[in-house]
Amino acid sequence: QNFNIPIQVQPQCFGLLTLVCWGQTLVYHDGWRTWTASLATAMLAIGFGAVEAILVLTLRGPYNRGVSWPLTMIAILASVILAVGLIPPYFELAKRGGRVIGINFIFLTVDWLGAFFSLMALAAQNTFDYLGGTLYIVCVLLEIGIFISQFIWLYRTRHIRRAAKKMGKTYDEYMADTTPPSDRQRPDTARTVETLDAYNGESYETIYETIAALEKCKTKDVKSPKNENLDLEMGIQGVKVTEKGMVARSAGRVY
């Protein structure tokens, strides 16, 4: 299509760097030997280059004669593959309540800016190329979604992160100490922080054991035997959790 040189060079550079990263995963994640991974990466790069050269040589003639459907098909396929590659992180975000883990935001910002300025380069041409533009638009929108997800998670967990900072802990350390295993995937709220503060930093396991014991036992007022029912909520408020047991602050009630 005879785009400007930077637009032509950009995907080549990005593809090469992506192949290098893929080769590193073969070594550090899959345990391949360095030379084996390097050879596999080089062979794949050569294969990609050969496919690109063949497509350019075979499609340039028909494109100049007005036959554009092969190029359109390739552009649609590229957009679909890009979307498929960027959708899996959203499943990971859903598992973690929107928190972004394992993605470098500096890299994501640079990548987003690259797609954005490439899109602007297409817009600055005499005619906007919707084939390449669609590819960059998909990239820009899906990566913006990752940023938004992280910002929402930061806002929803601002109270718990503030409490963790006061205790000199990271968010993960604080959650490991204060959240039961069944609830660690759910974002914490201000109510959670207030509850923890009320119990002076006692762990969730200790608090839940206290509540479970209160629900199982029937309490009686020593001075008033007829008063057999004790409001559970008032009972919990009057309980002081210790390592040795549960002692009610109100006189005459021992659990």
Automatic annotation (TrEMBL):
It comes from the Eukaryota. Keywords: Membrane, Transmembrane, Transmembrane helix. The chain crosses the membrane at residues 39-59, 71-91, 103-123, 135-155. This is PQ loop repeat protein.
